[in-house]
TrEMBL record:
Xref: InterPro entries: Growth_fac_rcpt_cys_sf, Tyr-kin_ephrin_A/B_rcpt-like
Tyrosine-protein kinase ephrin type A/B receptor-like domain ranges (all copies): 293-339, 933-967, 1060-1093
Membrane-spanning residues: none
Protein name in UniProt: Serine threonine
Species in which this protein is naturally found: Micractinium conductrix
Region (Disordered): 422-443
Lineage: Eukaryota, Viridiplantae, Chlorophyta, core chlorophytes, Trebouxiophyceae
Keywords on record: Signal
Domain of life according to the entry: Eukaryota
Signal peptide: 1-20
């Protein structure tokens, strides 16, 4: 039996009855034990269910006031369907095309309140049932949410285990979750279906043992003690580890629960990683390549159809490819792009198209009665899913419709589908659709709305084509954004096609209603009509230019069988030469597309009726009066017959009609004008002119009847120089004539203040050059920086010379006085401005260029320099201040000021007097010089310094310091190896035999005994080498140790060698005397040879050793005494403390011998041998 640790079959019975009670009054339930459960989805694997995808791992929170909240823990990147259609198999070719996906909610939805129909809770079962219903609603509404009234946007019917019951998409099955964590202290509010077993966290692997397929796989997700330390099954990951408390084994884990990897991930049992781009995975499944026509980003749970204009020809695509040039893919999910040539589609396999360019074509089809496929009754698609053409074209509802459809296939394989031949809908200018017509009816669809649009798409497995529509790219121009009526056209057999209409929506609420889903007693609405190709080629037919074009169309070598246009009749024919379009004759018309009969005759006769020209769509031409000379016309003005409009029209503006002499309108002569229909032409008013015939009255456009001369010119009857002058404002004294035909410009030095008068002379201090123009009709003030060339001539100006300026006392020249005053042909020197304007404002200025409007200040450090006198006086340059003096840029003065001691002018180029910089000084003597020395402070001499500014002298460096150059603000400590003991002097190198190992030293230190150095500027002394010594301070070299003595290094004396050792002069250590020698005294320079009669057997012998008994020594330097020969002996040299010499062995006495042995200390008596006689 499945334990309570798993949410079992009836825990959340998401049944239809759960929503049935919602209509009754409800009350909020409270008093729950708050806390949360963590749920992990465990079965079935590779599930595409939206709940399983979006809630693979979920936390279920129950509040104390009985509100339920679900928080997804592993939903990132998972997608669920976002488009619903009554016939999803017709959205594209195959299950991929034209699909639409949306991402799972990233966070929790709002809490669901547990409610009951009881006013008060009387038993725990009522609260349990209320919480169950809240859990039902939380799971069922998580993916697509609730509306503002708490109703499902799109209810996912089913339950937890989660149990699905009769879901139209996913069928009947359960979603199984395991409880892996719990913080609810009392689970009385969440029980099993039998209300006996409380829910609890999984306690053993048998809790996941369920024998039915596909739930039996869940037991593999729990690893018991024997394998709990290993990896989870493939495509799952650890979600719950229970430690092993048994101390008798070495296992770490009692059991481990594994959760299925979320959609878009996979793993090998230790964790889940995102699937790479170009692949996808379902819950607990492996990463698989996306099929052709789709792509995916990393971590995708679904593959997205390639967008419009792209394709993917192979599986596992990361990014779709753009269609090749002159090809397209409108329907998302294309495996190949298509190109249409004369209406016939071609697939560009793997991006390769033929060399034939695209071209359009039109085909004609007839239709059958439209019926609903589920009931064979009339089509009920309406509202957002209305088929406007079906609504308006009345014959489509008849048993034998006269309606035909014209399929115009563009080169990119998009198809414009236009209803023709049915007079109820084939009139593009139906008066009922025009708001300006009295017959307007807003319920009648305009022609543009009943036209439809489809697109060729390619199916690679069968290598076939179909026509589909795009969601969001409407088949008309008015479809709502979230709901759309779709069309699908497929080849059937022979010349027959199947046309089907159905609804599709991205609104989850609409997706639950008719016509998208079942709404008993009818099924989802799909409306169908059989099409028969009567002209042209559609869906794979072989192109054939001899194909017949039916009535209502005509033959075109470029476009096959286009629909007959309005104003024409197309009888059709099996012979392409006869399948032509015939224009309606004059006084006839045809308002319908696809018309094949006789054009209608325009109704009525007489002046108040209408007729038509050839090829007319409507009768809208007035019947004609060619004379146009009735009294009514003459009284109203000038009229004449107009061929274009075929009626009497007023003479155009600029013309008039002489009824006595002509039937035509004639142009008005020069100097006159007329408005539309004027009886006569009128002379141009004074100040206006017209040089041409046929001038229309310009008053409505320009405010003048004729043309006004360009500003600065006057209007005259004949060409002459406009030199007549008049006073400003006296307009009546120099009037101009009417009917002028030419303009002439005012001469230089004059201007035209009003277009109705003559020219006027310029006033004082103004000028105007050249003939007047619109841009040059004002006497301008002499510009600042300029003067008149001549005071008597106000026609030319020239710039002021260098050193002189002119300007106005106000920025607005019209409000200020010119400087110099009263001298328009003169400018003024900068140095003269002070007297002219009684101010010192300009004493420090100059004018270095021609045409200057202001004198500019001399730069700091300079003063103005004048040249000339009187009218030629000029201030064109500046000169430098004398040495030792300055002037800043702000001082308005013609002279410089002295600077003084402790200061300088040089760094600022005489623009300021600044204190001497640190490291420099300026005394009174230097400051008083007239040379350039007075401009800058002098650098402090070497071994002196000055740390502050404004110094008159420098300070000597203290003992132990110096400077390396001049101009120092501080002194530097003597470096290591140097010293100085007198202020203001250089640091000296330490003498040989001394050292300085610090900076800033006053004196050097003598080398200690045992050390030396023989170079200057040393920071240490060298230790005497072994075999040498120094026994005085300040040594420049070490002495060599005498023979018999030695030193070990850095010694101040040499040590004597011990007895038994010797040392030559300059020895680092004493050497032991070798065997055969000895040294009886210390401080030996050499070892003595061992004398005869003695032996010296070892190293470092202090004294000779005696010969042992049985030996002797008869030469010097013996290491050991020699054994006595046979028949000799020796008594030895005695004690080592008092040895005696043994230089020879003693012969054995007679009667004795050594029995043939050597090295004997005594001889043996020879025994006599006894001989026996026989």
């Amino acid at each position: 039996m499945v334990r309570a640790a798993v949410l079992a079959a009836c825990l959340l019975a998401l049944a239809a009855g759960a929503s049935a009670a919602a209509a009754a009054k409800t009350y909020n339930v409270g008093g729950c034990t708050g806390g949360s459960l963590k749920l992990e989805y465990v079965a079935p694997r590779e599930n595409d269910d939206p709940i399983a995808k979006c809630l693979t791992s979920v936390r279920l929170d129950l509040s104390s006031d009985c509100q339920v909240t679900l928080t997804p823990l592993q939903s990132h990147g998972s997608h669920v369907p976002g488009l619903w259609a009554a016939a999803p198999e017709l959205m594209g070719v195959g299950p991929i095309q034209n699909t639409h996906w949306i991402e799972c909610p990233a966070g929790a939805r709002g809490p669901i309140q547990a409610t009951t129909s009881f006013a008060s809770i009387s038993n725990p079962g009522q609260r349990l049932e209320a919480v169950r219903r809240a859990l039902i609603k939380a799971f069922a509404s998580h993916v697509y949410g609730l509306d503002d009234y708490g109703n499902y946007n799109y209810e996912l019917k089913g339950t937890l285990m989660v149990k699905r019951t009769g879901d139209p998409v996913y069928g009947d099955y359960n979603l199984w979750y395991a409880v892996t964590e719990n913080t609810i202290t009392s689970l009385d509010d969440i029980r099993q279906d039998d209300d006996i077993n409380k829910l609890s966290v999984i306690e053993r692997c048998s809790d996941l043992d369920y024998p039915l397929v596909p739930y039996d796989d869940a037991k593999t997700l729990c690893l018991d003690n024997a394998s709990a330390d290993g990896a989870c099954p493939v495509n799952s990951y650890p979600v719950m580890m229970v430690p092993d408390l048994n101390e008798d084994d070495e296992k770490d884990t009692a059991f481990k629960v594994c959760g299925l990897c979320p959609a878009g991930t996979a793993g090998v049992g230790f964790g889940c990683t995102t699937c790479p781009a170009g692949t996808y995975s379902m819950v607990g499944g492996a990463c698989n390549d996306c099929p052709a026509g789709t792509y995916s980003n990393a971590g995708s749970s679904v593959c997205i159809p390639c967008p419009t204009g792209t394709y993917a020809s192979a599986p596992g695509t990361v990014e779709c490819s753009a269609c090749p040039e002159d090809s397209y893919a409108y329907i998302p999910g294309a495996v190949a792009c298509v190109r249409c040539t004369k209406g016939v589609p071609e697939a560009c396999i793997d991006g390769e198209c033929s060399n034939v360019a695209s071209s359009p074509a039109t085909s004609i089809v007839s239709v059958s009665n439209m019926v609903a496929t589920s009931s064979n009754s009339a089509c009920d698609l309406a509202g957002a899913f209305e088929i406007p053409a079906y609504t308006k074209c009345s014959s489509w509802k008849a048993d034998a419709p006269e309606l035909q459809l014209a399929f115009r296939v563009a080169g990119d394989c998009s198809i414009q589908i236009s209803p023709i031949t049915d007079e109820s809908c084939a009139d593009p200018t139906d008066p009922k659709t025009s708001e300006d017509n009295d017959a307007f009816d807003p319920a009648v669809h305009p022609y543009g709305k009943i036209e439809m649009r489809g697109y060729y798409t390619y199916e690679p497995e069968g290598e076939t084509f179909a026509i589909r529509s795009l969601f969001g790219v409407q088949i008309d121009d008015y479809t709502p954004k979230d709901s759309n009526v779709m069309l699908a056209i497929d080849a059937v057999t022979g010349n027959q096609l199947s046309l089907k209409f159905f609804g599709a929506t991205t609104n989850p609420q609409t997706a639950t209603l008719f016509p998208i889903v079942d709404a008993l007693p009818v099924q989802p609405e799909v409306c169908a009509s059989t099409l028969r190709v009567t002209g042209g080629i559609i869906l794979g037919a072989t192109p054939d230019i001899d194909v017949s074009c039916p009535a209502g169309s005509y033959f075109s070598a470029k476009e096959l069988c286009p629909a007959c246009p309005v104003g024409f009749s197309c009888p059709g024919s099996d012979d392409p030469e006869q399948a032509k379009f015939v224009p309606c004759g004059p006084n006839t018309y045809n308002p319908f597309l696809g018309f094949s009969g006789e054009c209608q005759e325009c109704p009525g006769l007489g002046l108040d009726t209408y007729t038509s020209y050839a090829a007319a769509q409507q009768c809208d031409v007035d019947r004609l009066d060619l004379a146009c000379d009735s009294d009514d016309y003459k009284e109203e003005g000038s009229f004449a017959y107009d061929q274009a409009s075929q009626q009497c029209q007023k003479c155009a503006a600029g013309t008039w009609r002489n009824y006595e002499a002509s039937t035509e309108c004639e142009p008005c002569p020069e100097g006159t004008y007329s408005a539309e229909g004027d009886a006569t032409c009128t002379a141009c008013p004074a100040g206006e002119y017209n040089p041409l015939q046929g001038l229309a009255d310009q008053f409505e456009i320009t405010g003048f009847h004729c043309v006004v001369c360009a500003e600065g010119s006057v209007a005259l009857n004949t060409a002459k120089i406009a030199d007549a002058l008049a006073s400003v404002g006296e307009l009546g004294e120099n009037p101009l004539e009417i009917g002028a035909t030419v303009c002439d410009a005012c001469p230089a030095g004059t201007f035209l203040p009003d277009y109705r008068m003559g020219c006027v002379a310029c006033i004082e201090d103004t000028y105007r050059a050249g003939d007047a123009t619109p841009e040059n009709n004002v006497c301008k003030p002499i510009p600042a920086g300029y003067k008149l060339v001549s005071a008597e001539d106000k026609t030319a100006i020239e710039p002021c010379p260098k050193g002189q300026v002119s300007f106005y006392t106000s920025a607005n020249q019209d409000n200020g006085d010119r400087v110099p005053s009263g001298k328009p042909a003169a400018c003024m020197a900068c140095s003269a401005l002070a007297q002219e304007l009684t101010t010192s404002e300009w004493t420090h200025t100059f004018a270095p260029r021609k045409g200057m409007t202001q004198c500019i200040p001399c730069p700091g450090g300079t003063i103005p320099a004048n040249t000339g006198s009187g009218a030629t006086l000029a201030t064109a340059s500046c000169k430098a201040c004398p040495n030792g003096q300055f002037r800043d840029a702000y001082t308005k003065s013609a002279s410089c000021a002295p600077c003084g001691p402790g200061k300088e002018v040089g760094p600022s180029s005489k623009m300021s007097c600044t204190m001497c910089r640190a490291g420099t000084y300026m005394n009174a003597t230097r400051a008083g010089k007239t040379t350039t020395d007075a401009n800058t402070c002098d650098l402090c001499p070497i071994h002196t310094y000055r740390p502050t500014m404004g110094a008159l002298s420098c300070l000597p460096c203290p003992r132990g310091t110096q400077t390396s150059n001049t101009g120092n603000v501080e002194c530097t400590a003597c470096p290591i190896g140097y010293h100085n003991n007198q202020a203001g002097t250089i640091c000296e190198a330490a003498d040989k035999g001394t050292f300085v190992n610090t900076t800033g030293a006053y004196v050097s230190t003598p080398c200690p005994k045992g050390t030396w150095n023989n170079e200057e500027a040393q920071d240490n002394c060298n230790p005497c080498a072994p075999s040498k010594y120094s026994n005085t301070f300040g040594s420049t070299e070490c002495k060599t140790c005498a023979a018999g003595t030695f030193s070990a290094g850095q010694s101040s004396f040499c040590s004597d060698c011990r007895a038994g050792y010797f040392a030559p002069a300059g020895a680092a250590a004493c050497s032991p005397c070798k065997p055969g020698t000895y040294a009886p005294e210390g401080k030996s320079a050499t070892c003595k040879m061992c004398p005869k009669g003695y032996q010296c057997p070892t190293n470092a012998m202090k004294a000779v050793g005696p010969c042992p008994k049985g030996t002797f020594s008869n030469k010097e330097g013996n290491k050991q005494c020699t054994p006595c020969p046979t028949n000799t002996y020796s008594n030895g040299g005695g004690s080592p403390l008092a040895p005696g010499p043994v230089m020879a062995c003693i012969k054995c006495a007679p009667g004795t011998n050594t029995r043939g042995l050597t090295g004997q200390s005594k001889c043996q008596v020879i025994r006599p041998q006894v001989k026996r006689l026989f």
